[in-house]
Amino acid sequence: MLRFILSRLLSTIPVLLVVAVIVFVVLRLAPGDPAAVIAGSNATPEDILNIRQSLGLEQSMLKQFSIYMGNLLQGDFGYSFYLHKPVVSLIAQRFEPTVSIAVGTMVLAVLIAVPLGTLAAWRMGGWLDRLLAYLLIMLLSLQLQWLPVQGYKSIASGLWPWARQLVLPWIALGTVYVALLARVTRASVSEALTEDYIRTAQAKGVSQLSILFRHALANAAVPIVTVVGIGVALLIGGVVVTETVFAIPGLGSLTVEAVLSRDFPVIQGVVLFFAFSYVAINLLVDLSYLVFDPRIRY
Considering the entire predicted model, what is its pTM? Predict the structure, then answer.
């Protein structure tokens, strides 16, 4: 297993290098001048030129790329043009809100979707199966006007103040994943309920709940965990709109700010962080298969 983990971690290096090259080239070819944004609307051409020189933007693209890659190989993601802080520091500051949204959303989705999907598979074709879609629609229409609409409080300020600010974002994102997870759970558990070991357990007089959750759901866990892992990875890299709407200072809003200010180092750093997160979460999902299905070996 150690060999598998090391090989997967080493395989992330070429992936991140390819991502770094693509992002660097696309940003340099895109319209917009970071120096002009920093200088402001009243700046003279000389002011803009001075800023470009101080940022190293007057150098050739090849020279800029060689400096960038050299710094990147040393673990240096660069320095923000606009915020005047190390990119690593900015990512660290914005990491908690984004992870709070992503993990909380998936926890909420799992707590709702897995039981619903399991029960729908148990009564497949019955009224509960048909009612599932209506329950999901009702969740989408929830109106929690007594909760804060915008803002974020660190988990250090207390568990309830932290959660209270995130309930609406969790619901806004979670309803989509509830539908997906419930569907996958229903299909997986339905298939597991047709297996011979289920009939054996029924013949032995095992209770329905035990058959449903200890046998069927446990053996259907691999596809469910796969969807959960992919969902968390996608949420970490895809909360831009949610963080903007709810004014949450996470990595999504940092990305928007960096794009608007043409802050190349920040955009490059955040994209690389998203890419690494996606690979790392997929690795954890692969390793979790060993827990849920002992027959799997690496």
Answer: 0.72
